[in-house]
Design goal:
Chain A: It comes from Pedobacter chinensis. The complex is a heterodimer. By secondary structure, chain A is of the alpha+beta class. In chain A, 65% of the residues lie in helices and 13% in strands. By secondary structure, chain B is of the alpha/beta class. Chain B is built from 19 helices and 15 strands. The longest helix of chain B has 31 residues. Classes of the chains: A alpha+beta, B alpha/beta.
């Protein structure tokens, strides 16, 4: 239970970073984000993504365009805003630090 | 074949089977519920709906079909994930998610469950509301009925107050399944349903109490009808069956008893009280009419029960009419005989016999339990009268059958200074000579042995004498200063003093008490010796 809780916390923090990273590579549709996350073995069900995307959009990190679809309703295609790009670069830096911290914690500073 | 519904989801028209529609609706309700307190709930839910619409459209194209079925919906739900899976990611989110607790309980409403009802579904509804099984509520309700019946009233009130769960949504609300449709603006179908439901809600609130009471009355009689024709019928039949068996047994007993009274086995029963009233000559008539008076109603009850239990007419009309006539004749005869017997209590006669006793300073009053035997009794019991010392001890029975034959003793102050014992025989009779004859037919004796007076507890009636309220009074007059020792056995026969009171004061567990005759009457010697205690007691 405790392990599960920690895992959830870790995944949650990383999920947001990963989503931003995926979107930074170009305009993308929500279900494609899901597909990428699935192949990265980080997800989770589709329903989880929508609240996250909405929150990021409302915080100004993302914007979207409506794109007509051949099947079904028009789709929201997400892109990063300038703020989003800025925050992502900050997160990249944080991730480097974290990866270093984890590496050091596991193997020792002098390895 | 299945009914198909056209839904508008995410601005897409989709044909969907009814069962699949129910599934999808429940799922969307769950989702809606989950994000209800989320800041961007409308947007999130719209996104999800759009995505679902897209997925469903894709599936239809892939499978080249027209209508969405349950499998498709389940596949979509699996892909989107259940709200429980959302929780795993969204918990501890900094977003303003206000609803901390699971929202289902708040949505529960108290309805009567018409699907699982026994009477009106009140118990089942309460069980849904407090999340327990209906049988426990029913058990509790049954217990309250046994405890003074307040449960009936409470049940009736709840019946009036609690609305019926009629629609699907009401049933879901009753069971605590999420059925909240507020804010589902996108879905025309569901919106319409929500509006309808709200209108219904308003009507329900506005329903005046008397209208609800009317509903209650209607339902109550409907239930009563169902009960009598259904469960009740079985219960009545079981009761009727019991009456048939029990009644038949009673009739048999009645025949046996009548035969017994007729003297087939033992005629000595007429020596006992209620039967000793009856004249010898009339016994047959009275017995027969009493038999008819009792037998026919029981027979009628049994026949009626047979009819109820087996749906069969056990007797035709002519015969039942004849039985009624016979019964009335029996009642008339019994009434006539009862009047005749009561007329024999009209006159009263007394017979007194006084004996002067030798003067002693102390008398002992005792009861002799040995039975007085008449000559006939001695012969009947094969007792040889020549064996002088043989005494048969009475079984000393008490109770209503013998108590009318008990003697009564009065103890009074002697005005003349002489000690005197008066035996007074009393009796009723139709005429005075008859009453006097009855009084004379009392056989009673007591024994004087020096200073001891030993009474028989009961008097006997000479053979052939019938009970006409015969009484024997024994009036003992003793001069002032005479000491009386009352044996415990005699207490209950002493009429004008409460003989036990002295024993209570003495409190020494003797089987006798000592009394002294004073100017004011008989006094307990203990009280005289301890006057201060006596006054305290008073």
């Amino acid at each position: 239970m405790i392990a599960e809780n920690t895992q959830t916390q870790m995944r949650k923090g990383i999920l947001e970073y990963c989503v931003l990273s995926i979107i930074s590579r170009g305009e993308i549709y929500a279900s494609d984000i899901i597909a990428e996350l699935r192949s990265a073995k980080l997800l989770v069900v589709e329903g989880t993504l929508y609240p996250l995307l909405t929150r990021l959009k409302n915080n100004g990190l993302l914007s979207y365009n409506w794109v007509e679809s051949t099947s079904g309703p028009p789709r929201k295609y997400y892109t990063l805003t300038e703020i989003g790009k800025d925050i992502l670069s900050q997160l990249d830096q944080t991730w480097q630090e974290l990866a270093y911290a984890v590496g050091v914690s596991q193997k020792g500073a002098n390895s | 074949m299945e009914k198909t519904i056209i839904i508008n989801i995410g601005n897409t028209i989709i044909h969907i089977e009814e069962s699949a529609y129910e599934l999808l609706k429940v799922y969307l309700n769950e989702v809606k519920q989950h994000f209800a307190n989320h800041a961007d709930d409308l947007e999130i839910v719209t996104d999800i709906e759009n995505r679902i619409a897209e997925l469903l459209t894709e599936q239809l194209e892939e499978q080249k079909k027209q209508v969405v079925d349950s499998n498709d919906v389940n596949a979509v739900i699996a892909q989107m994930g259940r709200v429980q899976d959302f929780d795993a990611v969204e918990e501890n989110e900094d977003e303003p998610v206000i609803n901390g607790s699971y929202p289902f309980h708040a949505e529960k409403k108290l309805y009567r469950d018409m699907d699982e009802r026994i009477i009106a579904g009140v118990c089942a509804g309460i069980a849904h509301y407090i999340n327990t099984e209906a049988k426990w509520i029913r058990l509790a309700a049954l217990l309250t009925i046994f405890m003074g019946g307040a449960g009936f009233l409470v049940y009736a009130i709840l019946w009036i107050i609690m609305p019926k769960a009629k629609s699907r949504i009401e049933k879901m609300e009753m069971k605590g399944e999420p059925a909240n449709l507020q804010g589902f603006q996108k879905n025309l179908d569901e919106e319409l349903q929500a509006v309808k439901e709200r209108l219904g809600e308003v009507n329900k609130q506005a329903q005046p109490l008397f209208a609800r009471f009317g509903i209650f009355i209607g339902e109550f009689f409907e239930w009563l009808g169902r009960f009598i024709s259904g469960t009740g019928k079985i219960i009545f039949k079981v009761i009727a069956g019991f009456i048939v068996v029990f009644g038949a047994f009673l009739l048999l007993m009645l025949i046996i008893t009548t035969a017994a009274f007729q003297g087939f086995w033992d005629s000595s029963i007429y020596e006992y009280f209620p039967f000793s009233i009856i004249n010898d000559g009339n016994r047959g008539v009275i017995l027969f009419s009493a038999f008819i008076v009792l037998f026919i109603p029981i027979l009628a009850l049994v026949l009626f029960s047979i009819r109820v239990a087996f749906n069969k007419q056990a007797i035709n009309k002519t015969l039942s009419f004849a039985l009624l006539i016979i019964w009335l004749a029996g009642v008339a005869t019994t009434g006539y005989q009862a009047a005749k017997i009561s007329s024999e209590f009209k006159q009263h006669a007394e017979l007194s016999q006084t004996v002067d006793l030798k003067s002693y300073s102390t008398y002992i009053i005792d009861i002799d339990r040995s039975k007085y035997f008449s000559k006939e009794d001695s012969i009947a019991y094969h007792i040889d009268a020549s064996q002088k010392n043989q005494i048969v001890i009475d079984d000393y029975e008490n109770g209503p059958f013998v108590s009318p034959n008990n003697i009564r003793i009065n103890i009074n102050k002697s005005e003349t200074g002489a000690t005197r014992l008066t035996q007074k025989n009393e009796s009723q009779g139709k005429t005075f000579p008859g009453a006097l004859q009855n009084a004379q037919n009392i056989s009673y004796n007591y024994v004087l042995k020096d200073s001891a007076i030993v009474f028989s507890p009961r008097f006997q009636l000479r053979k052939g004498t019938i009970w006409r309220n015969q009484e024997v009074w024994l009036n003992l007059e003793v001069p002032v200063g005479t000491k009386l020792i009352l044996k415990e056995d005699s207490y209950r026969y002493i009429n004008n003093y409460w003989a036990w009171s002295c024993n209570d004061h003495e409190n020494d567990h003797n089987n006798y008490s000592v009394w002294v005759m004073t100017e004011e009457g008989l006094k307990c010697k203990y009280d005289l010796d301890h006057p201060q205690e006596n006054t305290e007691n008073q």
